[in-house]
């Protein structure tokens, strides 16, 4: 049987997947993204002297808040009780820019991939917002799921050839 989109019923109508029969398991997801910018913008952010304040701390808090509200943003996502959200923001002089990584954890009947992806997306958008006064040419990209663990479908890792 060919793969099918789980958020469509037999008639093709969108619906929320019924997860009530699934087991509660430990699930994690890791997503990443990149914000590229001028080297001077990167240095301004690194120095902590951006006009709007601490870009990194603000982006981290925004990402955590976004992960917790994913079900309000993505129509067919289930509300879940996240047990952990970790946001890593690293400076990369080679880009120049920043690499953002979100890790989400939960004991639930459904996965946390969308929460990790939402966290990364909002962190990137927040960085853009905080620094756009000095660099409107920043780009946001390479947002992707890096890995997920747990659940009926098992573990998945982008770095071992599953990156579609």
Regions with little confidence, pLDDT below 50 for 5+ residues: none
Q: Helicity, in percent? A: 25-40%
Q: What order do the SSEs take from the amino end to the carboxyl end, as H and E?
A: EHHHEEHEE
Distance between the termini: 20 Å
Shape: elongated
Indicate the multimeric state.
single chain
**Overall pLDDT level:** 91
Largest sheet: 5 strands, antiparallel
The value of Rg in angstroms is 18 Å
Structure report:
The chain is built from 4 helices and 5 strands, in the order βαααββαββ. The chain has 164 residues and is an alpha+beta fold. It has a 5-stranded antiparallel sheet with strand order 2-3-1-4-5.
Indicate the topology.
Blueprint: E1 25-36, H1 39-47, H2 55-68, H3 70-73, E2 84-92, E3 97-108, H4 113-131, E4 139-149, E5 156-157
Antiparallel strand pairs: 1-3, 1-4, 2-3, 4-5
Helix pairs in contact: 2-4
In short:
The chain has helices spanning 39-47, 55-68, 70-73, 113-131, and strands at residues 25-36, 84-92, 97-108, 139-149, 156-157. It has a five-stranded antiparallel beta sheet.
List keywords for this structure.
about 160 residues; alpha+beta; about 30% strand; 5 strands; elongated; five-stranded antiparallel sheet
């Amino acid at each position: 049987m060919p793969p099918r989109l789980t958020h469509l019923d037999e008639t093709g109508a969108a619906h929320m997947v019924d997860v009530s029969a699934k087991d509660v398991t430990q699930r994690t997801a890791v997503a990443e993204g990149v914000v590229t910018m001028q080297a001077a913008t990167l240095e301004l952010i690194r120095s902590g002297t951006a006009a709007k304040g601490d870009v990194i701390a603000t982006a981290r808090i925004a990402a955590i808040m976004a992960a917790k509200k994913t079900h309000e943003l993505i129509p067919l996502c289930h509300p879940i009780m996240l047990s952990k959200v970790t946001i890593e923001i690293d400076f990369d002089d080679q880009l120049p820019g920043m690499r953002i990584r979100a890790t989400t954890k939960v004991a639930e009947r459904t996965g946390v991939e969308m929460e990790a992806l939402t966290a990364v997306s909002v962190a990137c958008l927040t960085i853009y917002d905080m620094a756009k006064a000095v660099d409107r040419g920043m780009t946001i990209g390479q947002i992707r799921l890096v890995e997920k663990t747990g659940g009926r479908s098992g573990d998945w890792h982008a770095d071992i050839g599953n990156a579609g």
